[in-house]
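#random but structural
TW: two for the price of one
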Amino acid sequence: MQPKFQAFRTSIFTPQDVSAMRDAFLLVVTERAPQEVSSDDAPLGRAIIRLYRMGLVDPMKLAAAAALLSTSKTFSNPDLFQLS
């Protein structure tokens, strides 16, 4: 039964997973300069989730990488960049 659980692990987040992703999101949002505030933080959220699924679980490193990816024009175009 253990292998089946591992197969679904990439789609199911524990409370600790959600907490780490939330911490990363808040780190990025609170550190932004006022002119960088976005009304749509969906790209940031997508970057955090995708990077977390890839194994980047440290909130500070996750925040830094997600902030960079979410502002990239390549990342914003789903036809050009897939991280699934």
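TW: number two ↓
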Amino acid sequence: MKIDACGLSCPQPVLLTMNAIKDNKLFFEVMVDSNIACENIQRLAENKGYKIQIKKTEKKFHLILTK
């Protein structure tokens, strides 16, 4: 599952991520274009027991969450 949250203001990227977590997704990717959204999603994922891998491209952060 991929969530493209680029261009969305906080808290929307976090809320989309929270919905995927509530749906018990074991593996998914979130794309954001904001450092703040990246940090907030990282904190949420770690608090919910997900491992997170972050890949930064020129304009986007790709966060891969795994349970």
